[in-house]
Amino acid sequence: MKGFDLMAILLNPEFGRMLWHGAQMTLVIALGSWLFAMSLAVVLLVVRLTPSRIAQRGVVAYVSYHQNVPTLVQLMLWYFGISSLLPDVLQGWLGEHSGESVFAIIALGLCQAAYFSEDLRSGLRSVPPGQAEAARALGHGYVGAMRHVLMPQAIRNAVPALVNHSVSLFKNSSLAMAIGVAELTHAVKEIENQSFRAFESYLIATLMYLAFSLLIMFAGAWLGRRARVATAR
Amino acid sequence: MITFSNVNKWYGDYRALADINAEVQKGEVVVVCGPSGSGKSTLIRTVNRLEEIKSGRLTFDGQDVHAPMSSAQLNRLRSRVGFVFQSFNLFPHLSALDNVMLSPMHVNGVKRSEARDQAMQLLERVGLASKALSYPAQLSGGQQQRVAIARALAMKPPAMLFDEPTSALDPEMVGEVLAVMRSLAADGMTMMCVTHEMNFAREVADRVWFMDAGSILESAAPESFFKNPQHPRAQRFLSDLRAH
Amino acid sequence: MFSIFEILRDNWLLLLIGQYPNGPLGGIACTLILSVLGILLAFPLSVLLALARLSPWRLLNWPATALVYVARGVPLLMIILWVYFLVPLLIGRNVSGFVTMLCTLVLYEGAYLAEVVRAGIEALPKGQMEAARALGHSHLGAMRLVILPQALFNMLPSMLSQFVSTIKETTLGYVINVPELTFAANQINNQLLTKPFQVFFILAIIYFIVCWSLTRAATALERRIEARRAGPRRAGTAPQPTVVVETLAAEP
Question: Using the beta-carbon criterion (under 8 Å), do C174 and A72 form an inter-chain contact?
């Protein structure tokens, strides 16, 4: 077995390029799906709050599906299954324009939107009922009460859970490897194949993942502290 | 200002409010007292329709509170009834000043600078101008309740309702809140207060309503009520109070 | 869409037990065995890690905390690659994908369960430990006899929820050729080639049924435990807070 030599990986221009592109792809997928998931989560919450029973049941079914089916299976269903149902023209276009990444962002975004919307809903439920009463007593309508009193508190309550699930989303970007996206884990596996230096290449990727996850966790903790100071009862 | 005509509220067999007939005149201060479970809170909450009634008629400043109406109309009605909660219910994510400014701006359409000036004046009036930028978590219970009073006053209501405003406060802070309420009464505000503070009732109220089991059993001027309660249950209530 | 029933009819055995007896046990059977073994073996590890995290000795506390943060911050796929690489080195011979996946799950779930156990212990009123120490129990004795039994009972719904997560995590075994359900489905898809949507739809539905039923059981269990603990309400005793099943992070 060759001796431990980190620099053989880092200084090699080919490997360096692969690592850099892999990291970029990971961030693109993570950020893209995060934005998609957050926007969709707000929509899901609004739909859930409407008085229509059908709409509520729809959201419940959506959340239930995405929380109970493994994320990898969801990715496969989208990339292998649903793509085959698309018209050939669209399939061709996707094939040339990194369709894997598109499907990865869609699948991961849809999945995490379910978790984010539940986090927001829990945040809303933990706002004390007296707040809504006070808003009504002052004459605010439903929308006004939501906008100025309830949702600001709901979001602050939901920050810890949202941060946890954001870290999960970031980690799930590695699953895109299974459908061929050249993100960080994929890059590292390729480097290992070529250089036979598994330890060093894995270590680099692990440290990069860890650094970013810890960054999100600590930024989240700081946000959570600020939120709690403002809303402490 | 506030009239109750044959107001009733029940759940199945349980009578929450039984045949309430009473009136609060403009400029009058009415104190509602009685044992717990007597329906005092329910009564006061029907005035701004936080509770519904089953039969009867309730008017506020001439308007039928429980008539069918759109939510916009109800919101407008509520904005004219000042309500102070037992648990203050200040908005914790806003400063004291923002709490007072919020509703004039977004319900009454008052401009921000004007709302701010009025809010500062009200905070001065309740003695908390120095705490305008503090958040509720940084204020004591008595301070929070005074901000809550300012918040209700900011809507310029013709009448103020108080639902046990001092019951959740530590004893040493009760006085500062009662002082604000006293000054409001002295300025001629129409007030309806549910409270256990009998000294306040004696000194400030124009009438005292004694409630038990959903009915107003006695309605009298404070001196005659406290010296000479007519109804046996009122007598028992007052003697229980004095026993402490 | 009738092809779904055809596919099921032709391949149900493969989905259920994989290539057995012409190969290792696979399919749903493999998935469930892997999950059950994984969570059972992870459990004692998680209790030790939780106690280590709660201990005031830095020698115990810091490594345990580091392990938990690594498990929370590194993708499961990355950890699988590590274990796949390290285990043969450490024990000197090759191991099957199944064993690799099992080791990974034990480590990963051990760390996550440790957080669940820790939350359960911290949710108990301080008075419990104080009372036990006042009666003369040592710290570990109090843990064993008083704290852990209560904490673990309260944590049953959360642990059931982690079991569901474990089932979902077994799908990653596909990447290292563990013959579990997802692998079996991909085999079917590679044979049929023309019906990928139906195959993966079946796969999703199977997982949905399994996980959803278990999640429902967990919620029902949580409600029964809360009702049990609230008990006949006596003045002066407040019900203890349940650590809600909702708070667990998503697993791949």
Answer: yes
Distance from the Cα of C23 to chain A's closest Cα (Å) equals 24
Instruction: Please list every residue in chain C whose beta carbon sits closer than 8 Å to the beta carbon of residue A202.
Output: 78, 81-82, 85
d(CA A108, CA A175): 9
B78–A138 CB contact, under 8 Å: yes
Q: Which domain holds residue A167?
A: 7-232
- Cα-flanking dihedrals φ and ψ of residue B117, to 5°? -60, -45
Q: At what angle do helices C196-230 and C3-17 cross, to 10 degrees?
A: 60
ipTM confidence score: 0.86
CATH number of the structural domain spanning residue A187:
1.10.3720.10
Asked whether B206 and B221 are in contact (CB, 8 A), the reply is yes
Interface contact flag, C251 A73, Cβ < 8 Å:
no
Regions of chain A where pLDDT drops below 50: 1, 233
Is A1 a member of any domain? no
Give yes or no for a contact between B161 and B44, defined as CB atoms under 8 angstroms apart: yes
pTM for the model stands at 0.83
Task: Determine the CATH number of domain C2-250.
Answer: 1.10.3720.10
Q: How many distinct structural domains can be found in chain A?
A: 1
pLDDT at C79 over 90: yes
In a domain, A2, yes or no: no
Rounded distance between C-alpha atoms, residue C185 and residue C181, angstroms: 6
In angstroms, the CA C88 to CA C101 distance is 13
* B contacts of A138 (beta carbons < 8 Å): 78-79, 83, 102-103, 107, 151-152, 155
